[in-house]
């Protein structure tokens, strides 16, 4: 279970040219549909937990802290280094369906029993951390991991609706319903140092870029954020993304589900 360290940016007309000048290799263009799920009470997203089906592949993104004891809330930045980390998001991504179901169960049961949120989050994070503890992946291995995931997602698109529907039976156990669906056309570049740049164009008329580094352990997050920051500067994007740039979900919910969007803003899970 790797941690994705990401920073979104507003794409400029010269961004692709600049990427190539910095040694980026064009990986390809692909299109995929994302469908996101939550309970009617927004249990998952209010826990910053994002369940989606991309193609026919289930994926769950869960929050992870950069360091033990670090607060996640906005407005607590101290030095410049902290700020760089804050501008990046970091999520653990789970792709194994049995692990996804376990994690969703934990979040839903926690909400139902009204237990102390922070204590439970610590437990969940510890469990997530165990998996990566003894491994140390190289950049090539991370790239291979990305390629295998994208291949699975493409296969899912080819296999289509039938598998998706049979595989969705578990959603009923947690009263999960689809709350968002959109299709993205993505152009990807691979940069030296294991950085991936994705330029996304979404079917409801929204465009966003993101720089991503995969790491194995939370301790590697500051170095990954530093690498991303250097690239942001080299791409001439520092001014345009000195604050958090909204992603596809922010734009989608703001436009199509303002009530859900408002709840997530109030809970500081999305940012205006
Ligand atoms: C984590 C998250 C969401 C799930 C989608 O994440 P995102 O990285 O935006 O999507 P995408 O399609 O680029 O995924 P990838 O292909 O890289 O796996 S929706 C909202 N969040 C939280 C969140 C946040 N609070 N702030 C920012 C800037 N992004 C995401």
Order of helices and strands: EHEHEEHEHHHHEEEHHH
Helix amount = 40-55%
What would CATH call the class?
Mainly Beta
According to CATH, the fold-level topology is: Hypothetical Protein Pfu-838710-001
What amount of the residues lies in strands?
25-35%
Judging by the overall fold, what is the CATH architecture?
A: Beta Barrel
Q: Which structural category fits the helices and strands?
A: alpha+beta
Shape: globular
Count the DSSP helices. 10
List the helices and strands and how they pair.
Blueprint: E1 3-9, H1 15-21, E2 25-38, H2 43-46, E3 50-54, E4 57-63, H3 80-87, E5 89-94, H4 97-113, H5 117-132, H6 139-159, H7 161-167, E6 177-191, E7 195-202, E8 206-215, H8 221-234, H9 248-256, H10 258-266
Antiparallel strand pairs: 1-5, 1-8, 2-3, 2-6, 3-4, 4-5, 6-7, 7-8
Helix pairs in contact: 3-8, 9-10
Bound molecules: Thiamine Triphosphate.
Thiamine Triphosphate binds at residues 6, 8, 50, 61, 89, 91, 210, 212, 244, 247-249, 270.
What features would you describe in this structure?
This protein is of the alpha+beta class. It has a single domain (3-266), classed as Hypothetical Protein Pfu-838710-001 (Beta Barrel). It is built from 10 helices and 8 strands. It has helices at 15-21, 43-46, 80-87, 97-113, 117-132, 139-159, 161-167, 221-234, 248-256, 258-266, and strands at 3-9, 25-38, 50-54, 57-63, 89-94, 177-191, 195-202, 206-215. Strands 1-5-4-3-2-6-7-8 form an 8-stranded antiparallel beta barrel, surrounded by 5 helices. Helix 9 packs across helix 10. The model is unreliable at 71-79 and 129-134 (pLDDT under 50). Residues 6, 8, 50, 61, 89, 91, 210, 212, 244, 247-249, 270 line the site of Thiamine Triphosphate (V4E). Thiamine Triphosphate binds at residues 6, 8, 50, 61, 89, 91, 210, 212, 244, 247-249, 270.
